[in-house]
Amino acid sequence: MITAGIDIGSITAKAALIKDNKLLATQVIPTGYDHLGAAIRVFEAVLRKAGINKKDISAIVSTGYGRASVTFADKAMTEIVCHGTGAHFLNPEIRGIIDVGGQDSKAILLSQDGKIQDFAMNDKCAAGTGRFLEVMARAMDVKLEQLGDFGFLSNTPSKISSICTVFAESEVISMIAKQEKREDIIAGIHDSAASRVAILARKINIKEPVVMTGGVAKNTGMVEALKKHIKCDLIVGDLPQETGAIGAAVLASKL
Amino acid sequence: MSDTKKHKMKSAKKMRDLMTTYYIDALSASQNNKQVAWITSGGPVEPLLAMDIIPVYPENHAAMIGASKMGDDLCMKAEEMGYSSDLCSYARADISCSVVKGGPIGGLPKPDMLICCNNICGTVLKWYEVQARFYNVPLFILDTPMCHTHYHPETATYVRAQIDEYILFLEQMTKRKFDHEKLMQVGRLSIEGQLLWQKVLNTTRHKPSPMSAFDAFFFLALIVTLRGTRVAVDFYKELNREMEERIQKGIGIVPNEKYRLLWDNLPVWYQLKWLSNTFSDHGACLVADTYTSAWCGTIKYIDKDNFLDSMAEAHTRIYLNIGVDQMAEQVLDMIKFYDVDGFVMHSNRSCKPYSFGQMDIMKIVRDKTGIPVLMIEADMLDSRNFSQSQVETRIDAFMEIIKQRKA
Fold first, then answer.
1. Tens-of-pLDDT digits for all 255 residues of chain A?
2. What's the per-residue H, E or C state across B84-138?
3. Is the model's pLDDT at B7 over the cut of 70?
4. Residues A215, A176 contacting (CB under 8 angstroms)
5. CATH class of the domain whose range is B11-179
6. Chain A: residue nearest B370 by CA?
7. Domains of chain B, residue spans
């Protein structure tokens, strides 16, 4: 039996295919304005990648903020249960998940058998999310992918006191005006975002081993800052961004 | 979308009619040579009724403003007047409504006096001072110290002495001797009303629950505004009969009730229908809440033969004026009594005394019961503090966890 999971996030759309409890293929594309359109494109792309026909798919589960827009899915489920299921599928030892996505950051606690025990999500504020880092990368005039490397170069991170993305941006601009070192400011940005996410982890008394999922897991500077703030090791798998889609595909196989 | 209208409650229309009559009486008070007192929701209303003064509740009015989705405009108006957006949205809406005469009933009748009891929060002190200046009327403040652990003798003496001052204040305002005889009658009706309200709330122990917290939020208005009157007693007797009838016939408010939940904090007035439907679609019924039970929660302290002394104690020991440990005890009792599967906490941007301590209560509930707890960030009146898609994701995930646990 082949099943599919489609995760429509605020920035990227992800799809995964599972056959008999084995991962077949995954795909990531930008979401854009049209959620259903993105869902169709990413689904077709992952089918092409795996060389599978649409009619061979037994069930589809959608997740992410656009989950309700995926009208061709059999069921919509939240990214919390999908990330939990995906992380457990990829590594059954995992007890804690830190997921930092485009507009959401969350901490999830799993039981030993992979069930969700508890979760905490950021409030309405964007600080501590991927969007925050995007805004900051633009203010620092570096590519988003370069942020992580820059952060590593600093021994004396700047202190960003604002907890609001908009205010933090103007704080960063005033630091640029004062000619503080770019790497220090970037390390400060990571520290600031990580401290927000760490609160979520502490709220639910996260247990090790902890995996990091979501697009921001690709930012090594942010991962290091998070390790420091949560005071535990963080595992980053090969497919951090696709974990939710994989979980959705696993859940589809149980429909 | 589930149809919650299918078994519509007959008492709802009756209740609307009674509330309309109440507000018409209040709005036409001056024409009938009657005095109007504005009073906080937790304030001692019985002495007002004993002196034939019409009590009016800015908080009940604010709830109506919220349910009519008119809160944002009034809050913004207050902000234009210079009030901070961090100020309680009820206070903002009430203050600006006095100026613009907005809201669903064009504002409350002008008060002849203001009665403020700080057992519910500290904001009411400044809020009522602002209104006392605006309307240029006397303000009486009843100060009820926080009961972190016990009701100490010093507290009892202090609050009781203020009740005497309150009575003197009312005598001065009405230029009449206080009617102790009538207070006894009002007191008995108040106690009877509270017991009947408790009985209504207790009916949701039944599975399936004949009503939900969303109905309680609505039916609450009478025990708040007409506590101490025959009207309230008669209405709640009738409501109890209707609930019993629903139980007899096995009518549940949520079709196919599968999960039972407890709600904490004030309602999100402008999203009642959406929240009700969202939970109902999961087969979940909010069977009880910590908010509506506040209007009968201290009945155990009231002695009908010693009404004034015991009233002082009852007003001081309400849910929002006790320690977090005691609040948690009440929550644990409710979880057991109503046999709930999960606990939904509304972290209310406006209501600091209600929302402060929620993290501790959450932890205590988790440690002692193991049931899932959800925290929703919102505001009772100002919808600019509510994000539907974020709340929806949290509710869906919370329900997934509950379903997983019960499977």
1. 999 999 999 889 999 999 999 999 999 999 999 999 999 999 999 999 999 999 999 999 999 989 999 999 999 999 999 999 999 999 999 999 999 988 888 999 999 999 999 999 887 677 778 888 888 888 888 888 888 888 778 888 888 877 677 788 888 888 898 898 989 999 998 988 898 899 899 989 999 999 999 888 988 899 999 999 999 999 998 899 999 999 999 999 998
2. CCCCCHHHHHHHHHHHHCCCCCCCCCCCCEEEEECCCCCHHHHHHHHHHHHHCCC
3. no
4. no
5. alpha beta
6. A117
7. 11-179, 182-406
Query: Is the backbone peptide bond immediately before A240 cis, with ω within 30 degrees of 0?
Result: no
- Which one of A65, A116, A124 has the shortest CB-CB distance to B404? A116
User: Which residues, in sequence order, are CB contacts of B213 under 8 Å at separation 6+?
Assistant: B263, B267, B286, B287, B288, B289, B292
Token look-up 């979520």 returns A200
User: What are the pLDDT digits (tens) for B350-370?
Assistant: 999 999 999 999 999 999 999
Q: Which of B387, B393, B402, B406 is most worth mutating to test chain A (most A CB atoms within 10 A of its CB)?
A: B393
Contacts of A203 in chain B (CB under 8 A): 359
Mark yes or no for CB contact A78/B393 under 8 Å: yes
CB B201 within 8 A of CB B216: yes
Q: Which of A65, A77, A116 sits opposite B389 (nearest CB)?
A: A65
Q: Under CATH, to which class is B182-406 assigned?
A: alpha beta
- Give the bridge partners for A210, in sequence order: A96, A234
Specify the amino acid at residue A197.
Answer: V
Q: Using CA atoms, how far apart are residues B49 and B189, in angstroms rounded to an integer? A: 11
User: What's the gap in Å between the CA of A80 and the closest CA on chain B?
Assistant: 6
| Per-residue b or e along A95-129, where b marks 16 or more CB atoms closer than 10 Å to that residue's CB | bbbbbbbbbbbbbbbbeeebbbbbbbbbeeebbbb
Residue pLDDT, tens place only, A113-156: 999 999 998 876 777 788 888 888 888 888 888 888 887 788 88
Contacts 24+ apart (CB under 8 A), A111-116: A114/A84, A114/A85, A114/A88, A114/A89, A115/A84, A115/B401, A115/B404, A115/B405, A116/A80, A116/A81, A116/A84, A116/B397, A116/B400, A116/B401, A116/B404
Instruction: Tell me whether residues A121 and B401 touch, CB distance under 8 A.
Output: no
- Per the document, the length of chain B is 407
Fold for domain A2-124+197-252? Nucleotidyltransferase; domain 5 (3.30.420)
CA distance B162 to B149: 22
Question: CA A64 → CA A215, B87, B370, B393, distances in Å?
Answer: 13, 34, 27, 9
**A123 — contact with chain B (CB < 8 Å)?**
yes
Q: Which residues pair with B322 in a beta bridge?
A: B147
Which among B366, B372, B387 is the nearest to A124, CB-wise? Answer: B387
Rounded Cα–Cα distance for residues A55 and B398 (Å): 33
Which of the 8 DSSP states describes residue B147? Answer: B
- Report the residue from B359, B394, B405 with minimal CB separation from A121: B394
A123 contacts in chain B (CB < 8 Å): 377
Whether the Cβ atoms of residue B292 and residue B201 lie closer than 8 Å to each other: yes
CA–CA gap between residue B96 and residue A195 (Å, rounded) = 39
CA dihedral (B162, B350, A122, B400) positive or negative: positive
- Would you say B61 and B104 are in contact if contact means Cβ atoms under 8 Å apart? no
- Does B161 score more than 70 pLDDT? yes
Q: Which residues, in sequence order, are CB contacts of B3 under 8 Å at separation 6+?
A: B255
Written as one letter, the residue type at B320 is: L
